[in-house]
Amino acid sequence: MDLTTQLRSLYAPGVAATIEVPETTIPAMVEEVAGRYPQRAAIDFFSRQMTYAELVVQMRKAAGALAAAGVRPGDRVALVMPNCPQHAVAVLGAMALGAVVVEHNPLAPAAELRGEYEAHGARTTIAWTKSLEKLSFLDPGHTVFAMDLIRALPRASQFLVRLPLRAARERREQLAARVPAWARRWDQEVARAEAWQGACPAASGDIALLIHTGGTTGVPKAAALTHRNLIANVEQSIDWVPVLHEGAEVFYCVLPLFHAFGFTIGFLAGLRMGATIAMFPKFDQAMILTSQKRLPCTFFLGVPPMYQRLLATAKQMGSDLSSIHFSLSGAMPLSRELADAWEEATGGLMIEGYGMTEASPIILGSPLASTRARGALGIAYPSTEVRIVDPEDPSRDVADGEVGELLARGPQVFPGYWNQPEETEACFVDGWLRTGDLVRLRDGFIYMADRRKEMINSSGFNVYPSQVEEAVRTMPGVRDVAIVGIPSSSSGEDVVAAIVLEAGASATLADIREWAEKSIAHYALPRQLVVMSELPRSQLGKVMRKKVREQITGMTGGAIQAAKGAVEGARGAVEGARDAVGEAARGAARGATDALRRITSPEDRQQRGQQRD
């Protein structure tokens, strides 16, 4: 019996071993669902709702606005915005034209955005007004639409935020910025556009989406996902959870759409199910639990730190979570204690999923049955084949219980990276996707053994040591640096900077973070700092990160405190607590409180002083 057949023996009742993937496109899928549930609310944003019929109208008007701007099939349309109704409409409108959507993190530094733009070559951008200042590198021939988040709010909220009061002004500055003369106003362009009347010219096998990832080698690149890839993973996920009811669910879309987990499961699967999708521009416990009173959630998608913080805040607020019948956790290990506590609070079921952007993203999942195993990555999704092989000889499958690299293939696996054939070739072997993760089979389930690569998994985000090292190394006074991941009970792994200073120089964790955030994403900033006299190197002069990690973890408690500095360690814990699933606040000194430019709420500083996300 091969591994895939063995894993399928543990499927929950009603889950098929294989599925049929509709040969359709995402816009066609949405129109088909709208035909069945035209008056059902499709999108909810702080109580302002858009029905499925209205969503289709907005999709076609957005397509009309983009077509008038010169967008054609196959063109890339870059999106730089948080989760909001305009984001949903922009995605569907671009895809309706047969264009390729390119997702970007709206909080990414300008240097990161510039590199991504140089790689994908989009000539049209739809961006949140608060992100426009970071796009000044775009040339004059680039078409830029500015999206005003205030316009997505309910009418009463729009009125209040525009009052000539100090509090209203501060709130307004958090939500929006002035639109420069070189940008068009997206909301106005869509409102007056002629609705696009044509059918989507794309085929199911055409590229629909580019999502940026470090991939299996750690080199930043854009994973190209087809309509069929995305729809396949949606259908696999729906089949995996037969307890969901079409036309009756409420999905909470908290994970950002620039993350494949949020895009495919939180957004597309919700649309496919005819669910009402409550969109949140950032993760904020109070915001989510307030919405829970008004529009009770039935399906929640998140990562372990989210669940942990929601439980704590729900207890403080006395919130009722019993409407949440099903929850899916991914991106990092889920502890048995947290899963049990969540199921006790909701009365629902919680399972884990494992995947990667290159697989749209889910490959494995825990079965929705009593046979599920806490802490396991899970078993193969329907129509998904997996192998565990010798990393040095992928043609050889390892024995049960032996550690090997996980390979996968199925309809959700991408065709390759955008314009990077060498990177694409490196991540496939004989048609199988090399995940780069080392796993083992135990009691019928696949478990993570270790990461083959030195990538750090911090709060569900991939952090690549070389990128962080490059950012820190340019800081005056820093002679040498190594970045490693140290296990953390709350964030998976903490990013730790081990530095060697020039003679007479000094540096604190706050100094390092302030310097590095100019060029790397906030979630990649070091959360701990260790000053060393020298870094261990190989005979070839290469820093041995494994030795660095061993030295740090081998320190006594007192040595660690001496190395980090008690004061700076505490400050780092507070700052690290603001890191996002979708990214976090930019510096406590800037007084960020409830800004929608954050993906994670700053309130967690009060709740997690010793428990960092």
UniProtKB/TrEMBL annotation:
Keyword annotations from UniProtKB, A to Z: Ligase
Domain (AMP-binding enzyme C-terminal) ranges: 467-542
Gene3D superfamilies found in the cross-reference section: 3.30.300.30, N-terminal domain of ligase-like
Biased composition (Basic and acidic residues): 595-613
SUPFAM superfamilies: Acetyl-CoA synthetase-like
Domain AMP-dependent synthetase/ligase: 31-418
Region (Disordered), start-end ranges: 584-613
Keyword check for Cell wall biogenesis/degradation: no
Molecular functions per Gene Ontology: ligase activity, forming carbon-sulfur bonds
Family matches, as Pfam families: AMP-binding, AMP-binding_C
Keyword rRNA-binding applies: no
Family matches, as PANTHER family: AMP-DEPENDENT SYNTHETASE AND LIGASE, LONG-CHAIN-FATTY-ACID--COA LIGASE
Protein name as catalogued: Long-chain fatty acid--CoA ligase
